[in-house]
Each structure stands twice: as structure tokens, then as C-alpha cells.
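REQUEST FORM: STRUCTURE PREDICTION
Request ID: SP-0412
Submitted by: Lab K.M.
Chain count: 1
Length (residues): 83
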Amino acid sequence: MRGLVVAVLVGFLFVIVSRMLASWRRAPSATAPDRRRDELVKDPVCQTYVVLSRAVTARNGDAVAYVCSRECAARFAAGERHR
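STATUS: Completed
RESULT:
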């Protein structure tokens, strides 16, 4: 009889712990980095890839691009693109 009680108790604890772990994995962390800021974007001027969080924003009229440096941003603003 004691073995049955221990087995039920161990099973119950296993279910509780597994549900707690599953809920922790699903819950978004308040300190988690914004994954969109870690994506790679392609520089339209020199064709290199740069991490979005470190990219320079370049504008030419209504066109907006993310480039690798201020030099490429100036070239993009002047209308230069890679061919």
C-alpha cells in the first residue's frame, strides 16, 4: 500500500513540475532582446550584410534603407545603388 501511495505522489509531482517547466518556456521574458533587431539586412550600396541593430538608416526621398556605414548612407542618399 505504501508503494502505491509513493508512486502516485511521484507521478503527481512529475506532472506538476513538467507543467511548470512548460509554462516557463512559453512565457516571454521581459529581459529578452528584440529578435527583429538581430536580423541581418543587406546594404543596397555595397551589398554587405549588417545586423539591423548596428545599421545606419539612409534616406533618399521616400526610400529608406539600412546600410553598413555613413559613407554608404551618403552614397545611397546621392542615388547610388549596386548594379
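NOTES: The chain has one domain: 2-77.
Reviewed by: T.R.
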